[in-house]
Amino acid sequence: MTDNAHLLKQHSFVELGARQRARALLDAGSFRELIDPFARMTSPWLPKQGVVPQADDGVVIAKGSIGGKPVVVCAIEGNFQGGSMGEVGGAKMAGALELAAEDNRKGIPTAAVLLLETGGVRLQEANLGLAAIAEIHAAIVDLRRYQPVIGVVAGSVGCFGGMSIAAGLCSYLVVTQEARLGLNGPQVIEQEAGIEEYDSRDRPFIWSITGGEQRYASGLVDAFVADDVAAVQQHVEHLLHKGKPEQERSSQYALFLQRLGQVDTTTQIDPAAVRSLYQGEQP
Q1: How confident is the model over 187-203, as pLDDT tens digits?
Q2: Does the keyword Transferase feature in the UniProt annotation (predicted)?
Q3: What distances in angstroms separate CA 169 from CA 143, 153, 173, 235, 246, one per listed residue?
Q4: Containing H/E element for 254?
Q5: Taking every pair of C-alpha atoms in the chain, what is the biggest distance, in angstroms?
Q6: For residue 9, what pLDDT band results from cuts at 50, 70 and 90?
Q7: Count of CB atoms within 10 A of residue 32's CB?
Q8: pLDDT-derived band of residue 279, with 50, 70 and 90 as boundaries?
Q9: In angstroms, rounded to a whole number, what is the distance separating the alpha carbons of residues 251 and 144?
Q10: Given CB 3.0 to 4.6 Å as the disulfide criterion, which of 37, 105, 125, 251 pairs with 55?
Q11: Are the CB atoms for 26 and 65 separated by under 8 Å?
Q12: For residues 86 and 47, is the Cβ–Cβ distance under 8 A?
C-alpha cells in the first residue's frame, strides 16, 4: 500500500466530538452513556452570567469495553467553553472515577480513559471548578492503584491548567502531533511574562515547546500516535492490556525537580534545550 493510499484510509480522531471519540474507542456495541444530555444536568451558574449552558455540561461519561476490558471513558468537549471544567462536568468525571474505584474494590476490574481537551478550570465557576478538579485528581490517584488510568490529548484545544495536573497523574498518556500539554496556556504566559518571552501567536514555536512530539521526546508522555481513530484505539488498548506501570510518573517528582533546577531562566528556552533538559542531559 502506498503512503497516499494509507492516508486515504485514515479517519481523524481530532475532528471528532467528545461523544464520537468515546464511541470510537469502545468496542462495537458496548457504548453506554451515563447522565446523557436528556438528563439535563446543566450548569446553574452559566445562565446567570449570560452564557448558554450545554445539556451535558461539556463532559461525556460512557461505560463499555476496550479489547474486552471493562472501562469508563470520560470525554471533555473542547468546543464548549474551551473544554473548561465547571461544577457539574467536574462532578460527573470525579463521580465516574470514584465509582470505577469502588467497582475494583468489589472485584470488578474497571479501568478509565480520559479524553482531555481542556483549558482547565471554567473561570465563570471559579472555586467550584477548582474544587471539582481537585476531586478528579484524588479520584485518579485512588483508581490507578487498581487499574491503569489512560489520558489521551489529541487536539485541537490541548490540555492546560488544573487538568494538565490530572493528565500528569494518569498512569499513561497518549498524544498526537496536534496535541499540546502544559500547565499554563500560551496566552496566560504571554500576559504574565510578555510577548518577548512567549508569543501566543507563534504557533510553530508553541508546538515546538508544548506539542505532542516534544512531550513524547521529553519522556512526559508514553505514546505519540498519528491522528487516526484506529491508531489511537490500538495504543489505548495496548496500554490497558499492559496494566499498571511499575512506577507512576508523578511519583518521580524528585527527578523532575532536579532537572528543572538546571534551567537557565536568564535566556528564553528553545526546543532543543527542553528536550535535553527532560532527557537528563547537561544544558
Answers
A1: 888 999 889 888 889 99
A2: yes
A3: 11, 14, 9, 19, 14
A4: helix 253-260
A5: 56
A6: low
A7: 11
A8: confident
A9: 12
A10: 37
A11: yes
A12: no
Residue 154 CB partners (closer than 8 Å, separation 6+): 13, 14, 21, 115, 117, 175, 176, 178, 179, 227, 232
**Backbone torsions φ then ψ of 79, nearest 5 degrees:** -80, -10
What are the boundaries of each domain within the chain?
10-250
| Cross-strand pairs, 75 | 60, 115
Structure letter (DSSP) for residue 34? E
Cell of 67: 479489547
Average pLDDT (196-216) is 92
Tell me which residue has cell 521529553.
Answer: 218
Contact 117, 158 (CB under 8 A): yes
Closest CA to 11 of 252, 278, 227, 259: 227
pLDDT digits (tens, 9 = 90+) for 73-87: 999 999 999 999 999
Residue closest to 125 by CA, chosen among 97, 164, 89, 161:
89
Specify the pairing of strand 59-66 against strand 32-34. antiparallel
pLDDT of 1 reads: 45
**Residue whose entry in the numeric block shows the C-alpha cell 508553541:** 206
Collect all residues with Cβ–Cβ distance below 8 Å to 261 and sequence separation of at least 6.
none
* In contact, 60 and 22? CB cutoff 8 Å: yes
CA distance 254 to 258: 6
Nearest to 263 by CA among 282, 237, 279: 282
C-alpha cell at position 211: 506539542
